[in-house]
Amino acid sequence: xxxxxxxxxxxxxxxxxxxxxxxxxxxxxxxxxxxxxxxxxxxxxxxxxxxxxxxxxxxxxxxxxxxxxxxxxxxxxxxxxxxxxxxxxxxxxxxxxxxxxxxxxxxxxxxxxxxxxxxxxxxxxxxxxxxxxxxxxxxxxxxxxxxxxxxxxxxxxxxxxxxxxxxxxxxxxxxxxxxxxxxxxxxxxxxxxxxxxxxxxxxxxxxxxxxxxxxxxxxxxxxxxxxxxxxxxxxxxxxxxxxxxxxxxxxxxxxxxxxxxxxxxxxxxxxxxxxxxxxxxxxxxxxxxxxxxxxxxxxxxxxxxxxxxxxxxxxxxxxxxxxxxxxxxxxxxxxxxxxxxxxxxxxxxxxxxxxxxxxxxxxxxxxxxxxxxxxxxxxxxxxxxxxxxxxxxxxxxxxxxxxxxxxxxxxxxxxxxxxxxxxxxxxxxxxxxxxxxxxxxxxxxxxxxxxxxxxxxxxxxxxxxxxxxxxxxxxxxxxxxxxxxxxxxxxxxxxxxxxxxxxxxxxxxxxxxxxxxxxxxxxxxxxxxxxxxxxxxxxxxxxxxxxxxxxxxxxxxxxxxxxxxxxxxxxxxxxxxxxxxxxxxxxxxxxxxxxxxxxxxxxxxxxxxxxxxxxxxxxxxxxxxxxxxxxxxxxxxxxxxxxxxxxxxxxxxxxxxxxxxxxxxxxxxxxxxxxxxxxxxxxxxxxxxxxxxxxxxxxxxxxxxxxxxxxxxxxxxxxxxxxxx
Length: 725
Hints:
Elements: E1 5-6, E2 18-19, E3 25-30, H1 36-47, E4 51-56, E5 64-66, E6 71-73, H2 79-98, H3 109-139, H4 153-159, H5 168-179, H6 196-208, H7 224-236, H8 261-270, H9 273-298, H10 312-345, H11 363-381, H12 383-403, H13 406-464, E7 473-476, E8 486-490, E9 496-497, H14 504-519, E10 531-537, H15 545-559, E11 566-571, H16 574-580, E12 591-598, E13 601-606, H17 617-630, H18 634-653, H19 659-663, H20 671-683, H21 700-713, H22 717-724
Parallel strand pairs: 3-11, 3-12, 4-10, 10-11
Antiparallel strand pairs: 1-2, 5-6, 6-8, 7-8, 8-9, 12-13
């Protein structure tokens, strides 16, 4: 028994290259075009040398029609047949010898194929060893470690589909990421945020304030230098003692003359209290500027080591902004300070407002810094994921280096050359095997038809009696001068029927029964003991119920036998599949498989429990309607709705004509479309009605609403809800 089927030569048809889990009984359902015949072909091509394979795939290759005799030809037995069989035996023997393992190390097609396969497998083994070596080196790599301790050859092969090439800078970046420690910091940038416009406005106010002396001293008038000199002299001299008494004998430090009380009084009046207040305000503002300058100078660069590598560039840019901010701000403050100091020295001199460009007050820098800190904290939360991504990137780069190496390219080139030779020899071997199978089939036909056709016909007639009113039998043609193995068809009343009147189903059941009868014969074509495999590739081609159930009964009788050969039944017929398979299905002991075409290729869907198994055809029609709706196939929706209503009409009203449904349709929006749908049920698209409408402009929602209204009109809304959902 074969347990799995190699489908590597059908990679353009199937998603999977192996069909696994085969059992003694295998039941396969798939619509036309899903690859049933390809599976059959694969069984024949891959296992015909190991097993005696019997295939039934329709009546056309089993018998022919003799128009002259109006008869069916089931075989010949004459000297020409015997001579042909002997010729076939000789050819089959030579081909079999070429396709069998030789004796004494002789060379033949088998040995060449074996050697090419061994060479191919040896190179594949070398490549696998290379992959193992590469995986081991990657696993043991350190500083940084880029693979887990479980990294192996399979991991390396999976990484081959993800390879990428990194630059040196990218490698350094990812290596730093791997080595990064967790960074948890708080906002600590102490950058003064100062309203420079407000300070500038205050200082300009001080600079432009006009101070006038309250008493005129002629020698000081209109001479700012003398005014400043006098003001400084008043600071140098203290004309009162520590308790406030006037010092009468104090001398001028410049000229040596005694400073009189009158002179002090004049100077006090000249430099009034408003003057003194203004002077104090300017000195305070200078002190305030000195504080700002000190705070600005205390601002340090941001330590980029406090942040992850991802923000290195942004931190550098931010530090450059801080540097510019400090320089610009200091220059701005010093300019203000110089203006104030000059005003202090020339307090009675008129001053203009100082003009400077707008300054960055530092808030934008703080905002950027806080944003980076926030993002830095978030990165701490997924640091392990980023490290994993960095390790993956470096590992994929290393894998790329391995597969781009000359060692691997040389192995890969050798593999391609070996694969080409293997395919070439395998193709030649398959051609020989196909020719051998044809010769064996030809011989089998000749042998069976010539030796057992009479018995086979009797057995077939017994089974045909179960067809009821459709019964017909085969009658051997006994006419002198005509070759043996010709059979006419007799109807239930004993009269002859023309072979041309046989339906496809009747021809198919004859071929099917003939095929089953052949299975019971001793296989004279087998030259050594081999197991049998029986394949039925879409055996049911007729819609005739009697013929269908006869075929189903025969198949069930076959697979219910003890120790029956391995069996494959493949069909596209939903009803046939449901009826033919065992009622009590043992999913663990029997193989049930569904073929579904997805993206131009077929997928294998194992059926392992009742809920996954096929449903009756009526259920399938509703599923197809949903598929058409979901994929915007409005024309298909129309066809499926007609088929559903046709089946519903037959079941509920017991009628081929939809008049009972139409009679119950009341007035509603879209009635014309509904009536057109109903009238087209039985006649489908073969007859048109004047109520037919063009659906090309209708949306899928409009069609579905009309369909629902039909069920609502005939009081079967719940039926619609059950199937549509």
